[in-house]
DNA sequence: CACCTAACGTAATCATTCT
DNA sequence: AGAATGATTACGTTAGGTG
């Protein structure tokens, strides 16, 4: 995972969610959907989740892993001529920005999250689910929140360091 | 043991909301 | 317009199951 060894036992009993094992039937549907569109929008993922009786976040992870492992037609659109491509008829590549609705946290929800983050920036699935239950949002949203928080904290730290160096340069 | 793959991490980026 | 911040992506790593 990254540079730091997670090794903290003080994380939260059982760090990861137990590995989901899809049945052949489920896998068949997933593979079929992937072949039709490796980038399903949120509603498509949700529909799949209902269809194979699992959570949308599992679908998301599955598609991420599948895209990573199987090379497929990557539309980098660098290669494509943007002006001519406009003529593309009904195709429309559907995923016209169909995302999960941005959740807006109340200040009390944020307070809970921030407290939990201060206590420990890495939470196992059990802890995340508990938090999610407590503030009434999906567990996946909690996970995203922690990821973004960690990222932005790192960026902020790096910035602070650079500014300090910059000041030193200006003075020297 | 090696192999497969779900789960999960970071970094970058897209997109929405708010000032 | 720009700052904040939630959501999605690529890519790499880790852990749990199976041959």
The span between the termini is 39 Å
* Proportion of helical residues: 55-70%
Beta-sheet strand percentage? under 5%
- Domain tally: 2
Supply the key terms.
172 residues; mainly alpha; Arc Repressor Mutant, subunit A; 2 domains; DNA-binding
Structure overview:
The chain is mainly α and 172 residues long. The protein has 2 domains: 19-97, Arc Repressor Mutant, subunit A, CATH 1.10.10; 102-172, Arc Repressor Mutant, subunit A (Orthogonal Bundle), CATH 1.10.10.60. The protein is built from 7 helices and no strands. The chain has helices at 24-36, 42-51, 56-69, 82-85, 107-119, 125-135, 139-171. Helix 6 crosses helix 7. It starts with 23 loop residues before the first helix and ends with a helix. Residues 1-10 and 75-95 have low confidence and may be disordered. It binds a DNA duplex (19 and 19 nucleotides) through residues 1-3, 6, 15-22, 39, 42, 58, 60-62, 64-65, 67-69, 97, 99-105, 122, 125, 141, 143-145, 147-152, 154-155.
């Amino acid at each position: 995972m990254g540079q730091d060894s997670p090794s903290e036992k003080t994380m939260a009993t059982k760090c990861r969610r137990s590995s989901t094992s899809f049945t052949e039937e489920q896998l068949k549907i997933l593979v079929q959907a992937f072949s039709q569109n490796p980038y399903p929008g949120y509603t498509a993922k949700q529909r799949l989740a209902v269809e194979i009786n699992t959570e949308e976040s599992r679908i998301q992870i599955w598609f991420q892993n599948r895209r990573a492992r199987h090379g497929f037609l990557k539309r980098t659109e660098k290669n494509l001529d943007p002006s001519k491509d406009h003529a593309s008829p009904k195709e429309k590549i559907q995923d016209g920005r169909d995302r999960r609705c941005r959740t807006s946290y109340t200040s009390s929800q944020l307070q809970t999250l921030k407290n939990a983050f201060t206590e420990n920036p890495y939470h196992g699935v059990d802890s995340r689910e508990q938090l999610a239950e407590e503030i009434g949002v999906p567990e996946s949203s909690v996970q995203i929140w922690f990821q973004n928080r960690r990222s932005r904290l790192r960026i902020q730290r790096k910035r602070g360091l650079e500014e300090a160096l910059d000041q030193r340069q200006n003075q020297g």
